[in-house]
What does this fold into?
Amino acid sequence: MADAPETSRTLELVLGIIGGIFGLLGGLFAIIFSVFGTELLYLGMSAILASILGIIGSVYVRNNPRRGGAVLIISAVWLLISISAFAIPGTVFIGIAGVLALIR
It folds into this structure.
């Protein structure tokens, strides 16, 4: 039996990294706004951790697409819950990368 041709995971990698960068920026933005409330500080730090997990998941997609895609989707949901309005661009990019990793 011939093995199936290996699919390039560059799109998932790039979308995950772009989404992670947007998430990091949203988390920093939330931390800056934490002068108005201390809970924003913790939510911003949580968003930064979710973004870092998204970047790690996008790199992991190259080795294991299923697990990397699951990590990306978990990261997107975590990011959206953390800083909902600030995280929309990052959530969209990370979520699309996760869905693509699971489908392709």
